[in-house]
Design brief:
Elements (H helix, E strand, L loop, with lengths): L10 H22 L9 H52 L2 E10 L5 H5 L27 H10 L3 H9 L3 E7 L5 H10 L7 E6 L6 H7 L18 E8 L14 E8 L1 H6 L7 E4 L9 H10 L22
Parallel strand pairs: 2-3, 2-4
Antiparallel strand pairs: 1-5, 1-6, 4-5
């Protein structure tokens, strides 16, 4: 809440103060005036009227400054600082990463939307561990490389444009760091310009780069990078999970692959005309018993207008009271 300075001194206090000062001056002037001198004179006017008025103005100013002006000035300073902090916080939490384009490979079409009940029918095979159909390696090409080719081909035009912009990198999240060789091979096969920087994350590691990228200053250090660098304006995130080649190992999760071409807040400010599929807004992390407070704080940040929020999902949050 804003700081309050309270109310200034009431008007009746100044009126009472003037009456008191005027009465004292008039009484003193009459008492000390010589008997032979007329009461109505220039000296009487100066002593009984002008002098008390000037003194009343001076005392009123001191009274106002001591009772209200100092607190009002302090409250104004604190409210200004509060406004700057609140504005900076809102600007920070409202910053978003734009999804410029995407490719998703799943065992069933539109699987995410159907699982979230946004559109379409429920998944046809709930609970089953499934494989990506129609993606097979051939002529010495691994199945993983075939997946990467399926991910990059629809994005080729936008990737070429992003690479020419001079601020672009690739983050891949998969089982094996050596998969960057396949990414480079597909990049060359599609005749895309340059040789982008590729960073690797294992599937069991929290990416963490989103928070750093929101700050817009540096990249985090990945497995193949020991020096910080300026955060790029465009980033391609490649993530996939494929079943192992060993037939005796029973997989416990379905296969999936995704490619997201992301645009940084700096890029979207520089080129607001760019169209995007979605916005990734800053998240908030809280314990399960504090999720209601965290949700209220997130809504107070007004990342999007409240009337645009249509769905809210929660899972395994015991004792949630909303």
């Amino acid at each position: 809440d804003e700081w309050s300075a309270g109310k200034p001194p009431p008007v009746w206090l100044y009126v009472a103060l003037y009456c008191l000062i005027e009465f004292a001056f008039v009484a003193g002037t009459v008492a000390t005036s010589p008997n032979e001198k007329p009461i109505v004179s220039d000296d009487f006017l100066r002593t009984a009227l002008v002098a008390p008025f000037v003194l009343w103005i001076a005392v009123s100013c001191v009274l106002y400054a001591s009772m209200y002006d100092g607190r009002a000035f302090e409250a104004a300073i604190k409210n200004t600082v509060r406004w700057h902090l609140l504005t900076r916080w809102k600007r920070k939490v409202r910053s978003g990463v734009a999804v410029l384009d995407s490719v998703i490979l799943a065992p069933e079409p539109d699987l995410a939307e159907r699982m979230l009940k946004l559109e379409g029918s429920p998944p046809e095979h709930p609970g089953r561990v499934m494989r990506l159909d129609g993606i097979e390696g051939a002529d010495g090409v691994s199945r993983e490389r075939a997946v990467i080719e399926r991910l990059l081909t629809p994005l080729a035009a936008r990737l070429a444009h992003a690479m020419r912009g001079g601020s672009f990198d690739i983050v891949m999240q998969c089982e094996c760091a050596e998969s960057y060789v396949d990414v480079q091979a597909v990049w060359a096969q599609l005749q895309l310009p340059g040789k982008p920087r590729i960073r690797w994350l294992s599937n069991d590691k929290d990416p963490g780069f989103a928070d750093t990228w929101f700050e817009g200053d540096t990249d985090p250090a990945y497995a193949d990078s020991f020096a910080t660098a300026t955060s790029p304006k465009c980033r391609l995130v490649l993530a996939w999970h494929l079943h192992g080649a060993a037939p005796e190992v029973e997989p416990d999760t379905s296969e999936a692959a995704v490619a997201l071409l992301l645009g940084s807040p700096a890029l979207m400010q520089e080129k607001p005309q760019l169209k995007c599929q979605a916005w990734l807004l800053r998240q908030i992390v809280a314990d399960a018993d504090e999720v209601d407070k965290a949700l209220a704080l997130l809504l107070a940040a007004e990342q999007v207008p409240h009337e645009r929020i249509r769905h809210f999902w929660y899972e395994r949050l015991k004792g949630l009271a909303l």
